[in-house]
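This section describes the prediction task in plain terms. A model, or a person checking by hand, is given the sequence of a single protein chain and must write out its three-dimensional structure as a string of tokens. No templates, partner chains or ligands are provided. The sample shown here is typical of the held-out split.
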Amino acid sequence: MKEKIISKASDLFLKLGFKSVTMDDIAGEMCISKKTIYKYFCNKEVLIKESTSSVHRQVHELINSVVAKKHNAIQENFEIRETFKNLFQSSIDTSPIYQLKKHYPEIYTNLMRHEIDQCSQYFRDNITKGIEQKLYREGINIDIYVRFYYTLIFNINENTSSEKEAQKAEFEALEYHTRAMATPSGILELEKQIQKISN
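The expected answer:
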């Protein structure tokens, strides 16, 4: 039952917002008593913490599933972006990350600490792969490029209230990041991925 509550709460938080969803809403959606929820979670903050951890795990499982497909480095980044877009497409107009930071800053800070570590490792692996595939230039400072990119991405999500605007800015950041590293072959692959999205 605990996992079912976390799953339903996660869906509602992403769709309706962390602030607006109440324990009554979750109980009503699940056709259970509020008392049942409080049996597992002493308050809403604890449930939000568990729910965001669950979404965090889900996000990284999705990243790993895309990486396992062995796409080239540039296609991999675009596939992951598309996966994220689909995951959050049912959310309200306000970005979930923006909401979490605004209303539950402590939970947000703890989540981001883990998120930055895991994302940095993924970005590092992707750049290394792109260099091996001759899509990214040799000799670039991988750690600096990783820091540039996650600073861009997290800044967008922290400071853009609209989910639609955040996704648009993330796309621009991905193109910017890729062009900064790309070889001529990488530019061709980038243009191919952009064209695919435009069609």
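For orientation: The first helix runs from residue 2 to 16.
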